[in-house]
Amino acid sequence: MLHFSFCQSIFPLGQISSLPFLSPSSQAKFNLIVLENLQISGGGRIEITGLNIRLLALLLARRLSLIRRPFEVWGQYVLTQQDVSASKLIRDMVQLLVNNVLRTLFPSLHLTFFDVSIDSVQISPLRKLAVYGTANIAESDAGMPFTLLTGVGLAGDGHIVYLDKPELVLNPQTTLPVKVPLGSIRAFDVDIGDNARIESLEIDDIRGVSVTARTLITPAPPFQVTDMGKRAAFMYDMGAFFSSFFGFTHFSDLDLNGESKR
């Protein structure tokens, strides 16, 4: 969770136009951001709009009533190769998608699929993500190694992320690797919620993964009157995730489906 030591340790690395907790609109450049499950070390910049803090709550350390209303964080972020490889958040989301890709595919190959173990996620020179892992199947105690090379596509005005033109190779290190073309798998996409939107996402093996995104940070869990309908196969509420990190809601125990475990 975020404490104001975050501002003290991160913001001095960049150039700040105003102190974030004193102005409702602030801009900052940064070199490094470290979250619990994600590190961003390629630098970038953020703009915070609508931040209104109760200074008395800050002085009394009353974390849950620190902000008066939701505020927006817009940012440009660059994740390096190391960030992508080490991120538990990225690994968990990739594992969720790959699990379901192979669970759908393997019956047609007459294989009994259990789950996958992700060894690493890297940035490919082809400007795609390269996922290396092992599929655990009934027909082999050692499992079946695989490589998944995929781009990342955006849909639903930036609220949905999906695998773009993925290429799957089974047993890639053998003399007879099996290449399985998959096309764009929109059936295995992730809805990141109404309170988060990715405006652009570019993958480059030199620069890294460049992301421009908006996130609404809320002081309380969102209240929904009706079910808005399912937009993707899976849900991961990024707005709730970052609100939890900033310490403003009770979403610290979100699972990968974006549902509270409480």
What does this protein look like?
There is one protein chain. By secondary structure, this protein is an alpha+beta fold. It folds into two domains: 5-81 and 193-245, no CATH class; 85-187. It contains five helices and 14 strands. The chain has helices spanning 5-10, 55-60, 81-86, 88-105, 238-245, and strands spanning 25-30, 33-34, 39-40, 44-49, 71-79, 113-123, 129-137, 140-155, 160-170, 178-181, 185-191, 196-204, 208-217, 234-235. Strands 6, 7, 8, 9, 10, 11 and 14 form a seven-stranded mixed sheet that branches. A five-stranded antiparallel sheet has the order 1-4-5-13-12. A two-stranded antiparallel sheet has the order 2-3. It is elongated and about 65 Å long. Mean pLDDT is 77; it is low at 1-22, 223-227 and 250-262.
Structure summary:
The chain contains five helices and 14 strands. It has 262 residues and is α+β, with helices and mostly antiparallel strands.
Topology:
Elements: H1 5-10, E1 25-30, E2 33-34, E3 39-40, E4 44-49, H2 55-60, E5 71-79, H3 81-86, H4 88-105, E6 113-123, E7 129-137, E8 140-155, E9 160-170, E10 178-181, E11 185-191, E12 196-204, E13 208-217, E14 234-235, H5 238-245
Parallel strand pairs: 11-14
Antiparallel strand pairs: 1-4, 2-3, 4-5, 5-13, 6-7, 7-8, 8-9, 9-10, 9-11, 12-13
